[in-house]
Amino acid sequence: MAALLGLRLAISVASVLDISVHLIVFWSDNLNVLWWVRGRGRIFKPFIGNRIGEVQTYTNPDQWRYVPTKENLADLVSRGQSVTDLRNSHLWWHGPTYLDRSEREWPENRVERSLSAESEVRKSALGALSETIVTYSMFAENIDPSFRLKPDRFSSWTRLKRVDAWVCRFIDNCRLPSSKRNSGELLPEEISDVEVKLIQKAQKDIFPDEYGALSISKELPKHSKLLALKPRIDTDGLMRLDGRLQNSEYLSYNIRYPIILPRKNWITKLIVRYYHEHGNHSIGTNQTLSALSTHFWLIAGREEIRAWESECAGCRRRKAKAATQIMAPLPKIRLQMPIRAFAKIGVDYAGPFIAIQGKGRRR
């Protein structure tokens, strides 16, 4: 119940601050709750199942992390503390010390199965649960639920977004009653949400240190390639370039703050291919880069575009050079030996010659 109340409070605060709930990390010292969150809501008894279903509707399991009981500041109030102790408590005023460090130094995320946790599982599902939830718990740290499809198995940016959007809708519908399920064609908002998740994952893969530093409002590493771009993270969790066009209100938000796309990433290649094919293979490198600049800031953009142009089968056919004609061998009659000079060639001397004599020309 405490986890659900914390989630509802976080949703209310996030709506006021205009930030995404997926950027929030939830902490709990209850190992049973962390184990329940990683299970399927329908296998639990109604009280737990309904609450787990609501938690999974708005958050991903990897957003829930374990906090040791000694560092859980919520216990200071729930277990009773005097005003003097709270006033002198560093934990109460500043929180756990590891929050000031990088995410890699946070406590290990423990997910343990216990008898007390299993007591909330339906008896009919307890047998089949022994393999599924335990297996998921073992590999939960290596699974990103927001990235269910492998982009490198797709050759079209549009198709990747639509397939992923259909998968997300199916999963969401499984969590909702039949009367509230979505049907019909995909909505623009669904495709837009998937696009944000795909680009966000690409940024995290290529720039993990930079993304982690910006997420906790810290300075970028000194060796970062993004220092000159002055990146920042927007409300959707995307890294954007903070350029000099902030006051150009007549320009769109994407032009003033373009999304940073990493180089040598499959998602970047799919986006470049989309804009290249949108120009019917006829626009050059600069025109493609100009079209991309309306939404994105591509690292080493020209090199990335030229790399795709060299792979594009249509462009290779159009730019292919015509084969050169191989000259035939000289006829045998011209190579007979001995042949004197001018034996087979004549010179026409019948035409007039123009000669210069003095100041005039004569024939």
From TrEMBL:
Q: Name one Pfam family in it.
A: Integrase_H2C2
Which residues belong to any copy of the Integrase zinc-binding domain? 268-320
Q: Which InterPro entries match?
A: Integrase_H2C2
Output the PANTHER family linked to this UniProt entry. PHD-TYPE DOMAIN-CONTAINING PROTEIN (PTHR47331)
Annotated protein name in UniProt: Integrase zinc-binding domain-containing protein
Give the originating organism. Patella caerulea (Rayed Mediterranean limpet)
